[in-house]
């Protein structure tokens, strides 16, 4: 999986509200990101590489935005479950 492919897939999932599919994408996306992180790009100044990096950064910004919005949307539900499960405090 290419990083841009994975990020596009994540954005498609978010746009379609199919958040249950994120789990299936997660491991491939994490492996791909680790491969990119550990690679040796010696010359980031070439126009092709610079364009690819700019595209990945744009996609990362978009993915971060939609995932943050979703996190904010589900935070009340997560907190409600956490409070319902937590045992009562002892006096």
Q: Give the tally of structural domains.
A: 1
Q: Supply the CATH architecture.
A: Up-down Bundle
Structural class: mainly alpha
Give the helix tally: 3
Radius of gyration: 18 Å
Structure keywords:
91 residues; mainly alpha; Methane Monooxygenase Hydroxylase, Chain G, domain 1; 0% strand
Describe this structure as you would to a colleague.
The protein has 91 residues and is mostly helical. It is 77% helix and 0% strand. Helix 1 (3-16) runs antiparallel to helix 2 and helix 1 crosses helix 3. It is elongated, with a radius of gyration of 18 Å.
Q: What's the short story on this structure?
A:
With 91 residues, this protein is mainly alpha-helical. The protein contains three helices and no strands.
Note the topology.
Elements: H1 3-16, H2 22-38, H3 47-85
């Amino acid at each position: 999986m290419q990083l841009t492919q994975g990020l596009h897939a994540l954005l498609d999932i978010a746009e379609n509200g199919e958040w249950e599919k994120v789990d299936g994408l997660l491991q491939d996306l994490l492996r791909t990101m680790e491969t990119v992180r550990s690679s040796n790009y010696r010359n980031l100044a070439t126009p092709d590489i610079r364009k690819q990096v700019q595209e990945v950064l744009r996609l990362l910004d978009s993915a971060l935005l939609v995932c943050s919005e979703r996190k904010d949307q589900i935070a009340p539900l997560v907190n409600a479950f956490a409070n319902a499960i937590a045992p009562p405090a002892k006096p």
